[in-house]
């Protein structure tokens, strides 16, 4: 056991002597340091060293070929929890709402100051940019909705929208209408130009947490404390289907960019993906240890990011049906997260009053339309897995699921861009199947999903008596990875400060 400790000490002495001038050098050193620490943990289980050797080789190749998401900007200015965040279509501004009753507009250019908008008399619960970027809508506990011009003058128009807190506000795709959801158990639709009330949807029997338009503006999806997620038809103004939650209630919901699927996050810590044509649940993820507060689809539709009260964000690969990344950026519950429309960035806000802007690096590799089959990863969290070439039709996961739940892939024919060519899996893969249909109408009776391949157990499976030991090791590895993530975050912030100093 002494040799690894000696190796670590020498490693850090070398890093200190060179002043860690090179960012990639530091990341490489930290990855080796993490491996050595894992080796110490596993040393007492000689039969598992073979597993470590495989992890070491896959980690080395993955770090070379696939960059991780990186923290790009870090904003502080709110005096209380950040409740909502949105990124403008041109990526020049970020809007946030907070429990401090303020709306803030952050400019992505480092030299420009943020705009601080006061107008609401209570907590701001939701904000969103209009598709044009010329307006920002905000909703509040003060029962009003405000439309702001995101400029220094802070011009705004306010109207009383509900008889209770307005939980969410959402623009239609053409920017002409708004949908609001409230604790008064109703959903209301308004015109943007004159803030004229159009109609109300009132089939929920408890607080409505969220309501959003479909990409084609024909449907509205809503989630409520009554343990239902409802689909509404804009023309008939009727509820066309209700999805039922059996344990918790849905706190957030969003449409897939194709308009054919919805995802919901729940108080039972789960994330579910539903097909709105068959009304069947395609995927369920149990990856959080706290309430799922927010979620957002990547514009291409291949990935879903979630934010939770467990202080983490998770990036899910919907094509493979597995967890890719766990992000530890906030020091307390993460309340909101959203992808930018350009796919390169996403932003998050938390109870720590911080707003973080991340670069996804999803498109950092070649845009070759051939997808990648992700190899089997172990139960050890946070170890990158090596990607191997395969066609999209042949892609399936082969590792046993931690949660023992079968997960379906979303059909590739509905994805609007080639899938990302790589992974950095932090949990085992889920067995997956795929629907055989390509129909787009809601009324079609579609066949059941058909399996694309048989999942098989990896060679040399771990004996049952080691399961508890492995689970304990996994939790320790999660702590180690969180520490490394904090170090990387500090490094990124230091680099940004140095860059600003050099620019000035």
Automatic annotation (TrEMBL):
InterPro entries: WD40/YVTN_repeat-like_dom_sf, WD40_PAC1, WD40_repeat_CS, WD40_repeat_dom_sf, WD40_rpt, WDR55/POC1
Coiled coil: 477-504
Superkingdom of the source species: Eukaryota
Intervals holding WD repeats: 75-109, 117-148, 159-200, 201-242, 243-284, 285-326, 327-359
PROSITE patterns referenced in this protein's UniProt entry, alphabetically: WD_REPEATS_1, WD_REPEATS_2, WD_REPEATS_REGION
Biased composition (Low complexity): 425-441
Gene3D superfamilies: YVTN repeat-like/Quinoprotein amine dehydrogenase
Gene Ontology terms describing biological process: cilium assembly; microtubule-based process; multicellular organismal-level homeostasis
Bias (Polar residues) ranges: 387-400
Gene Ontology terms: cellular component: centriole; ciliary basal body
Stretch list, region Disordered: 378-466
Keywords of this entry: Coiled coil, Repeat, WD repeat
UniProt family annotation: Belongs to the WD repeat POC1 family.
UniProt-recorded name of the protein: POC1 centriolar protein homolog A
